[in-house]
Amino acid sequence: MEGVWQEDKQRWAQAAKLLLEEMNRAVNEAGGRLEASESEKYRQRYRAILKNAEAECPAPDETNRKGKRGRMKRTKARNLLERLIEYEDDVLRFMDNRIVPFTNNLGENDIRMTKVQQKISGCFRPLEGAKFFCRIRSYLSTCRKQGGEFELGFGDIVSR
Questions:
Q1: What sequence ranges are listed for the domain Transposase IS66 central (predicted)?
Q2: How far is the C-alpha of 46 from the C-alpha of 50, rounded, in Å?
Q3: Cα–Cα distance between 129 and 135 in angstroms, integer?
């Protein structure tokens, strides 16, 4: 949303971002989950922002098409808007379910190093090497998430 606001100057994106951040603070203050009535109030505000966004970021006019097949190209802002509308339950699940985090940054970070390794090497040649790499990355990620400290030595990982 930040890019849509900064690059395309779409005001709805900033409003949606601020609302989602407000929701996250409310969830944290409530202990990880909102009451159903409070959650519904936020959902109504979310829908109102996205409804107003339809005017600021309209779908392309497909009535004046000349022989092209398929769906007309949409802007990044329009694609984001359509995804936020279509996947509302998934976007807002963090309000109602304690185990769903506000962001997926930890999951993305866990995958990122594997993708970097693949880009550098092209692939993992032996399957055993991929297993070792994943096991070590998993251990380090778990330590980091649990607040533990660790050192990398020559060939061993030492947890403290």
A1: 6-131
A2: 6
A3: 10
